[in-house]
Design goal:
The chain has helices at about 10-30, 45-50, 60-70, 95-105, 115-135, 155-170, 175, 195-200, 220-235, 255-265, 305, 320-330, 340-345, 360-395, 420-435, 460-475, and strands at about 145-150, 185-190, 210, 240-245, 270-275, 300, 315-320, 400-405, 410-415, 440-445, 445-450. Strands 1-7-6-5-4-2-3 form a seven-stranded mixed sheet, sandwiched between helices. The chain has a four-stranded antiparallel sheet with strand order 8-9-11-10. The chain is about 40% helix and about 10% strand. The chain has three domains: about 10-80, dopa decarboxylase, N-terminal domain, CATH 1.20.1340; about 110-360, Aspartate Aminotransferase, domain 2 (3-Layer(aba) Sandwich); about 380-479, Aspartate Aminotransferase, domain 1 (Alpha-Beta Complex), CATH 3.90.1150.10. The structure holds pyridoxal-5'-phosphate. Pyridoxal-5'-phosphate binds near residues 192 and 277.
């Protein structure tokens, strides 16, 4: 008998409301192109529409859904619009949304194998699937000394890599005593800011992060890395970590992993490779050049939540030798002790990341891979790259514009030749139009527009329309 005083949503009512919400999401997908891509609200506008205090008595689901439409939707920047070309994508898909919903429905907290064996085993299995799917080195398979784990973000994964590198370099002394100020790490001047943040969190300090110079294509210069490491060694410092990027955030530059790895090998320095967005391109064999040298890396990370149709958050993190990671992060309080863990026959992923608790994220990735199949995923990645290359071609053939960096995959960095002010005006006009959304960076000190093709539903017509809009906005004011 249900508790007559209960405020919970009974299963039948949940079913009805659930259907209504799925209908709402499907309708949203159908009308998304009619909405301005970049939210137009001013700061504070959303909060001003919300009551100052929480309701004392529960409200109807219809009221809640009506407020989603009235209050929330205007404050949404539509990342799932096919006209979203900003930042790097955070693309979602039907199967991923349903997998995520199932994860919520099961409500599993998968900190240990024993707290839901399927949560751990599906994750291990799907991460092993991805190794041949992406042509990753076999040492990342769980069947050897390495293995993979799903984390929330690339920032967390890179922090874990840094922590494991720190401990490997100090024979696990930093874990006990803290850092002594001698550890140094390296990345390029174009590396994502998450590495600097990781240095702060790891207690190594951002002053101990060396930003190595880049070449004319914005890729790390191995000779500069070599020189800096030699200087540090001479100063009795300990080089413990290098982060190479396969697809930098600003311009999608690819650091020469193989040459960097050779230098890391000489100094026994941990090599981490961050392929946050571009890693997904390796689904297609013709794009695997981005991973050349990865077989020499100690760890690797990429985000299916950027370009692999798996909604945020879903990061894959691989290590070549899991013992350093586990020894760095493992703590076993009495209340978590259990037979399966003691037997050593299972993976307890709580030892593979910062937090204890974990969601069943593998479900959405599993749904995506099974729905699309490898060939379906390859098709869409190839299409995105084709559209971006076409766009780059149009830019190159218009004398008013220049390409600001090589467009190797799905990101095109371009600008008007007539200077920062004109580029700023162009970007502001485009984004205010509501027809598309793109963002900027600075390359060689110049304001540069970034056009990234990676949203799930972007088709050739969206890219053509974006270019037509750019042409229109530059027709009168610019030349
Ligand atoms: N690394 C690179 C190269 C990125 O481009 C980004 C974000 O765009 C990140 C790391 C951080 O990603 P996350 O939000 O998953 O921490």
């Amino acid at each position: 008998m249900p508790d007559p005083k209960s405020f919970h949503l009974p299963p039948e009512e949940f079913r009805r409301r659930g259907h209504a919400l799925i209908d709402w999401i499907a309708d949203y997908q159908a009308r998304i192109e009619s909405l301005p891509v970049l939210s137009r609200v001013r700061p504070g506008e959303i909060r001003a529409k919300l009551p100052p205090a929480a309701p004392l008595q529960g409200e109807s689901f219809d009221q809640i859904l009506a407020d989603v439409e009235r209050i929330i939707l205007p404050g949404i920047t539509h990342w799932q619009s096919p006209n979203f070309f900003a930042y790097f994508p955070a693309n979602a898909s039907g199967p991923a949304i349903l997998g995520d919903l199932l994860s919520s429905g099961l409500g599993v907290q998968g900190m240990l194998w024993s707290t839901s064996p399927a949560c751990t085993e599906l994750e291990t299995h799907v991460l092993d699937w991805l190794v041949p799917m992406l042509g990753l080195p076999e040492k990342f398979l769980s069947t050897g000394p390495g293995g993979g784990v799903i984390q929330d973000t690339a920032s967390s994964a890179s922090l874990c890599a840094l922590l494991a590198a720190r401990e490997r370099a100090t024979h696990f002394a930093s874990n006990r005593k803290g850092c002594d100020g001698r550890l140094v790490a390296y990345c390029s001047a174009q590396t994502h800011s998450s590495i600097e943040k990781a240095m702060k969190i790891a207690g190594m300090g951002s002053d101990s992060l060396r930003h190595i110079a880049v070449d004319e294509n914005f890729a790390m210069r191995p000779d500069a890395l070599q020189r800096q490491i030699a200087l540090d060694v001479e100063a009795r410092l300990v080089p413990c970590f290098v982060c190479a990027t396969a697809g930098t955030t600003s311009s999608n530059a690819f650091d020469p992993i193989r040459e960097i790895a050779r230098i890391c090998g000489e100094h026994k320095t941990w090599l981490h490779v961050d392929a946050a967005m571009s890693g997904t391109a390796a689904l297609c064999s013709e794009f695997r050049f981005i991973h050349d040298g990865l077989d020499l890396a100690d760890s690797y990370t990429f985000n299916p939540h950027k370009w692999m149709f798996t909604n945020f958050d879903c990061n894959c993190f691989y290590v070549a030798d899991r013992k350093h990671l586990i020894q760095t992060l493992s703590i076993l309080p009495e209340y978590l002790r259990n037979q399966a863990t003691e037997s050593g026959a299972v993976i307890d992923y709580r030892d593979w990341h910062i937090q204890l608790g974990r969601r069943f994220r593998a479900l959405k990735l599993w749904f995506v891979i099974r729905h699309y199949g490898v060939q379906g995923l390859q098709y869409h990645i190839r299409e995105h790259v084709r559209f971006a290359q076409q766009f780059a071609g149009w830019v190159a053939s218009d004398a008013r514009f220049e390409l600001a960096a090589p467009a190797k995959l799905n990101l095109v960095c371009f600008r008007l030749r007539s200077g920062d002010e004109k580029n700023q005006i162009l970007m502001d006009r485009l984004n205010a139009s509501g027809d598309l959304f793109l963002t900027h960076t600075k390359l060689d000190g110049k304001l540069t527009l970034r056009f990234c093709v990676g949203q799930t539903n972007t088709q050739a017509r969206h890219v053509e329309r974006a270019w037509a809009r750019i042409q229109r906005e530059t027709a009168d004011g610019e030349s």
